[in-house]
UniProtKB/TrEMBL annotation:
GO biological-process terms attached to the record: cholesterol catabolic process
Membrane-spanning residues: 14-33
Record pathway: Steroid metabolism; cholesterol degradation; Lipid metabolism; C21-steroid hormone metabolism
UniProt xrefs under InterPro entries: CYP46A1 (IPR039983), Cyt_P450 (IPR001128), Cyt_P450_E_grp-I (IPR002401), Cyt_P450_sf (IPR036396)
Pfam families: p450
Main location: other
Any one GO molecular-function label of the UniProt entry: cholesterol 24-hydroxylase activity
Name of the protein in question: Cholesterol 24-hydroxylase
Entry membrane topology: Single-pass membrane protein
Function, as annotated: P450 monooxygenase that plays a major role in cholesterol homeostasis in the brain. By promoting constant cholesterol elimination in neurons, may activate the mevalonate pathway and coordinate the synthesis of new cholesterol and nonsterol isoprenoids involved in synaptic activity and learning.
Superkingdom per UniProt: Eukaryota
Catalyzed chemical reaction(s): testosterone + reduced [NADPH--hemoprotein reductase] + O2 = 2-hydroxytestosterone + oxidized [NADPH--hemoprotein reductase] + H2O + H(+); 4beta-hydroxycholesterol + reduced [NADPH--hemoprotein reductase] + O2 = 4beta,24S-dihydroxycholesterol + oxidized [NADPH--hemoprotein reductase] + H2O + H(+); (24S)-hydroxycholesterol + reduced [NADPH--hemoprotein reductase] + O2 = 24S,25-dihydroxycholesterol + oxidized [NADPH--hemoprotein reductase] + H2O + H(+); testosterone + reduced [NADPH--hemoprotein reductase] + O2 = 16beta,17beta-dihydroxyandrost-4-en-3-one + oxidized [NADPH--hemoprotein reductase] + H2O + H(+)
The organism's taxonomic lineage, starting at the top: Eukaryota, Metazoa, Chordata, Craniata, Vertebrata
PANTHER family: CYP46A1 PROTEIN-RELATED, CYTOCHROME P450 FAMILY 46 SUBFAMILY A
Length: 511
């Protein structure tokens, strides 16, 4: 009995000391948060929801809104607080920047690495390795540069010219599908259709695999990409998402999806390795370049090599497919809403292409107005709406000193919708990008800027132009009445309705 009392006494003492340590740690953490507030509170910004969580409750509230787009809130704050404002979450501080000079300084220089809080967090997705140390998420400049140098040949102008055949082939599949619905007044969800095409394109030209998703509509691969994109939003914006029991099923589905993407990559990479070992001719595509990354680190072990290859496999599917599909969907939506722009774009396509079915590389340069339509689409609807960098040192932004040691976010969505940069910013006006129009000064960057700009932007815009040109050449389309033209935020931005159209064969008079 005495021994039991002694043990109980010891446990009481231990619990007391543990509680004291926890209390001291909590107080110390609160003091540190207060220090961070004092360090950055001279920067304007919206009132914090509370001392510890900062603005996190507002973010979560916006995410959970059925029709919420958090970038509209950032736009509202930019109009209210100016070209630089502060946001807090726990002990983290983020500055939102809409100053062209600072945008140029930071994005154009390798001195400012990608924000490790965001990009290192995407190493995993709810505990499953996701983008890892791939080309998008590598925060160390030297590590990123070695990968970028290896990948560059797969995006050279000479290689992209050789992809025109595949762009035409996959676009023709879409046209053939639309033939079946033309003249029947059957509504078509255009986002679903172009999403299949862009995924087919990236699978074929990057990895040598023909998915043919317009016919194979039950592919788990497409669903897995969709789940991972949603998972990225939950994972980055809501730190408490996985703690809520009602979300556990969703979290498991997202983890399974990430695992499926990597398992698919493993299979495709092994098939290509076997082909190389057997002396077969293989294309100089993205997959070939991914295999070369295995030799990037001389001292890397085989497991590290293998995982890095899978990192880049997942990276190119996540970054290279959904964004182009969303751009095309928004472009179709705006053309349907503006008959005069539609007629001018179609007239240009008819003049350049006539009746020929095979679009050649030289045709793309002649479709200048169509390029303006696509650029204006990305101004209003940048499908990857922003990027972030780490500020290691103090910096002066618009006359305001911002202490180093925080992240900076540059939102092309917000910049593209600010009146100070674009007159009547919510108006869809391709004339803004006419060759003789004044050029936007570091406030238009849908593919980011500088050394970390999107490697695949040329690829993406060639593909988008081929698909849209063929659609205008072959069909008339009109938007089904009553649908929403709002934006849905799933990590990338897409039309909420999916853009529902009726399709008809072209006649002489359009609209």
């Amino acid at each position: 009995m005495a021994v039991l009392q002694e043990i109980t006494g010891w446990l009481s003492h231990i619990m007391f000391y543990v509680l004291c340590v926890v209390l001291i740690a909590f107080v110390a953490y609160c003091l540190y948060v207060r220090h961070v507030h004092q360090k950055y509170d001279h920067i304007p910004g919206p009132p914090r929801d509370n001392f510890l969580l900062g603005h996190t409750p507002t973010f979560i509230k916006e995410i959970n809104k059925s029709d919420g787009v958090i970038h509209d809130l950032f736009l509202e704050w930019a109009e209210k607080y100016g070209p630089v404002y502060r946001l807090n979450s726990l002990h983290f501080v983020v500055v939102m920047i809409y100053c062209p000079e600072t945008t140029k300084t930071v994005l154009m220089s390798p001195k400012y690495p990608k924000d490790p809080f965001v990009y290192k967090r995407l190493f995993n997705l709810f505990g499953k390795r996701f983008l890892g140390n791939g080309l998008v998420t590598a925060t160390d400049h030297d590590v990123w540069y070695r990968q970028r140098r290896i990948m560059d040949p797969a995006f050279s102008s000479s290689y992209l010219r050789g992809l025109m055949g595949t762009f035409n082939e996959m676009s023709e599949r879409l046209m053939n599908e639309l033939e079946e619905t033309a003249d029947t007044n059957t509504p078509v969800v255009m986002h679903d259709m172009v999403n299949c095409v862009t995924l087919d394109v990236i699978a074929k030209v990057a990895f040598g695999v023909d998915l043919n998703l317009l016919k194979n509509t039950d592919s788990p691969f497409q669903t897995a990409i969709e789940l991972c994109l949603k998972g990225m939003v939950y994972y980055l914006r809501d730190p408490f998402f996985k703690l809520n029991p009602k979300n556990w099923k969703t979290v498991q589905q997202i983890k399974d999806a990430a695992e499926l993407l990597r398992a698919t990559g493993e299979k495709w990479i092994q098939n290509r390795k076997t082909a190389v070992e057997n002396g077969e001719d293989v294309p100089k595509d993205i997959l070939t370049q991914i295999l070369k990354t295995a030799g990037m680190h001389e001292k890397a072990n085989n497991l590290e090599d293998h995982e890095l290859m899978l990192d880049n496999f997942v990276t190119f599917f996540i970054a290279g497919q959904e964004t182009t599909a969303n751009q095309l969907s928004f472009a179709i939506m705006e053309l349907g809403r503006h008959p005069e722009i539609y007629k001018r774009a179609k007239a240009e396509v008819d003049e350049v292409l006539g009746m020929k079915r095979e679009i050649v590389y030289e045709d793309l340069g002649k479709l200048s107005y169509l390029s303006q339509v696509l650029k204006e689409t990305l101004r209003l609807y940048p499908t990857a709406p922003g990027t972030s960098r780490w500020l290691p040192d103090d910096i002066i932004i618009n006359g305001l000193k911002v202490p180093g040691g925080c992240a900076a976010i540059f939102s092309s969505y917000v910049s593209g919708r600010l009146e100070k940069f674009f007159k009547d910013p919510l108006k869809f006006d391709p004339e803004r990008f006419d060759v003789n129009a004044p050029k936007p000064y570091y406030c238009y960057y849908p593919f980011a800027l500088g050394p970390r700009s999107c490697l695949g932007q040329g690829f993406s815009q060639m593909e988008a132009k081929v698909v849209l040109a063929k659609l205008l050449q072959r069909f008339e389309f009109s938007l089904v009445a009553g649908q929403s033209f709002d934006i849905k935020d799933t990590g990338t931005l897409r039309p909420r309705s999916g853009v529902i159209c009726t399709i008809k064969h072209c006649t002489q008079d359009v609209f």
